Amino acid sequence: VYNFSSGPATLPLTVLEKVQAELVDWGGSGMSVMEMSHRGDDFVGIAERAEATLRRILDVPDTYRVLFLQGGATAQFAMVPMNLMRGGSADFIDTGIWSQKAMTEAARYGRVRLAAGGPDYATRVPAAGSIEIDPAASYLHYTPNETIGGVEFPYIPDSGDVPLVADMSSTLLSRPLDVSRFGLIYAGAQKNVGPSGLTLVIVHEDLLGDPLPGTPTVFDYRVYAENASMYNTPPTFAWYVAGEVFAWIEAEGGLPAIGERNRRKAAKLYAALDGTEFYRTAVAQDSRSWMNVTFTLAETALDTEFLRGADAAGLKSLKGHRSVGGMRASLYNAMPEAGVDALVDYMKEFERIRG
Length: 355
Ligand code: PLP
Known about the structure:
The protein is of the alpha/beta class. It has helices at residues 13-22, 41-58, 72-84, 97-106, 221-226, 236-251, 254-274, 303-312, 337-354; strands at residues 2-3, 64-69, 89-94, 111-117, 140-142, 145-146, 151-152, 164-167, 184-188, 199-204, 279-280, 292-297, 315-316, 327-330. The mean pLDDT is 97. The structure holds pyridoxal-5'-phosphate.
């Protein structure tokens, strides 16, 4: 089947098969990775190789630390302000539900100021020139790809001297990225990285230390940086699978090749949507997500039939988020082009019969 779920999402089949082959006996150790001490040589090797591969494929500068955490991106909505909101206020760009969740949580720790976006920006990103940053802000937070709305920034905001913080949960590793533009990047793993339970944080070392008073030790980035993300027991199995996903990306030709494939996949689906009145997408041309393509049927009464037929044809999880309705096709890295072709064929056939 082709799984268009927004997450947890499809993993590359070759990765799943390798994990299956190694499940009960990793590398002749006689143990599953799940059973290994995180401080033993075998797991430390797995962990170090995963980080090294990620650094290679994403070209992470040496001045950045890569942290392998738990708690999902949602925990980062709190952990970011706990660690970085030292000046008492932070700026936000609001482009939808995930931006708003990050803002609501940050407001528990200090002042949340809107630098751009807002209720009118659920289907388009604000123009680069319209972002008004408070130079005294502790950081500027934005959501480069809004997973629910399917709205994606085609540019990286210029935040000047204010550190830029990005929730990249649904776009990290979808294409090459200039990490040096960011103060901190975070992502729940369960889209392009690996299984849920793992959260990646890539943070400039200058931002480590000095969290807000009362910040629990287990939420202090510096503690993870100083302990190779092993202050306590890390999500070992998810970390191992993520390492296999990073190796798969490298073997596929790295992020330039993955990015080109993702660009083609999205272009095919948007072309199909643009070519008819039967399907519609509300998202502005320059803000269309490569990863989460949202669309509706002109006749919403046909939604259920469309989804039922898709499911029967092996095209799974196309229902849009409950808050926006309609359809959403998530096209993460592990979705092959053949999956997009199958979806487009199904859409054309459905339109032929019911249009
Ligand atoms: N931010 C974005 C952009 C997301 O897409 C998601 C989940 O889909 C989250 C945050 C929440 O992530 P988690 O469930 O890992 O806490």
